[in-house]
Specification:
The chain has 305 residues and is an alpha/beta fold. The protein has ten helices and twelve strands. It has helices at residues 17-29, 54-77, 92-102, 114-126, 153-156, 159-169, 192-219, 234-244, 267-275, 292-296; strands at residues 5-10, 33-39, 47-48, 51-52, 82-87, 106-110, 131-134, 144-148, 172-180, 224-231, 249-253, 279-283.
Length: 305
């Protein structure tokens, strides 16, 4: 999968620099282009009692356009092909319909942008396009990409995309598997044979995990490392690995082995979205159909159309 068309929705240009620069990094690697999608923030439309003041609306749109023009100039100065578009109705569904209509390969959003942060979970629920939540300094480049794996085919769905990114960016993959420590009843006396049984189970799990990850690495066309750890909490362990291994990007499928289809994100993916210090690239493996009701709602604005 080539990531040649990258969309960056922007509510607040000042809070979106990390997303813009990380999108530019990806676009450069694939000889692609970045499209900036400006959106009016809630309140900018000066709506009162159901009426939008057309003067205030146009003034807000002009300010947004000017701010994005400055971002376009910076990217063009870096030699990055870039386009600018405006979205007059700011909602997650409208952004996703824009993504589908433009056939974008990747969406990059800034977690610091309050407008996008409010839309993010809804976008992740319905998007069939990978979404990258940009974190870290604006100059962060993806040199180390972690792919958490639990042995399921769902989790492995991110490997092709992560591998393509690593190839184009010259990055190293880190395939990570966390073995959850078996739980023993607290009130039960732990006999020697019980402890031995747990140790045997962990040894077997580690051996199988090593075999599994090594087989995957042998098939990858990029530099790759493996990391296996035993921990009481898989989510906590992954956060530790991200920090200890200087990970720049975590590539993860929305659901893993135990992920429930009715939940937009599995527990581990949700924890990474909430707390990962690195950028997180999420692919929804079970996207829901976009709600038709919102699409059919009146989206006209005072500027016409």
């Amino acid at each position: 999968m080539l990531l040649k068309t990258v969309l960056v929705p922007i509510g607040d240009a000042m809070q979106s620099e990390t997303a813009v620069q990380q999108a530019a990094t990806v676009a450069e690697a694939f000889s692609g282009k970045v499209t900036l999608l400006g959106m009016l923030q809630p309140g900018e439309q000066a709506e009162a009692q159901g009426f939008i003041d057309p003067v205030a609306w146009n003034a807000a749109r002009t300010r947004k356009h000017a701010a994005l023009t400055e971002v376009v100039a910076r990217l063009e100065g870096q030699g990055v092909p870039v386009e600018m578009e405006m979205l007059d109705v700011s909602s997650a569904m409208q952004v996703l319909r824009h993504v589908d209509a433009g056939h974008f390969d990747l969406v990059v959003v800034s977690e610091q942008d309050a407008v996008l942060r409010a839309m993010l979970r809804e976008m992740l629920t319905y998007s069939s396009t990978p979404i990258c939540v940009a974190r870290g300094p604006a100059g962060t480049r993806f040199r180390r990409i972690m792919v958490p794996l639990d042995g399921s085919q769902r989790a492995e769905c991110m490997l092709p995309l992560a591998t393509t990114l690593a190839q184009s960016l010259g990055a190293t993959l880190l395939l990570t598997h966390i073995i959850k420590e078996p739980e023993m009843p607290q009130r039960m006396s732990h006999k020697a044979e019980d402890i031995q049984l747990v140790e045997q189970l962990l040894d077997r799990s580690q051996q199988e995990s090593e075999r599994y990850l090594n087989e995957l690495v042998a098939r990858l066309p990029v530099p790759a490392e493996t990391y296996i750890a035993v921990h009481q909490s898989i989510a906590t362990a992954l956060q530790d690995v991200i920090r200890q291994q200087a990970i720049d990007l975590v590539a993860v499928c929305a659901h893993g082995y135990v992920g429930l289809p009715e939940q937009p994100l599995g527990g581990i993916t949700n924890s990474l979205l909430e707390a990962s210090p690195a950028s997180v690239l999420i692919r929804q493996d079970l996207p829901s159909a976009l709600p038709q009701a919102e699409f059919e709602a009146n989206g006209r604005h005072p500027g016409g159309g």
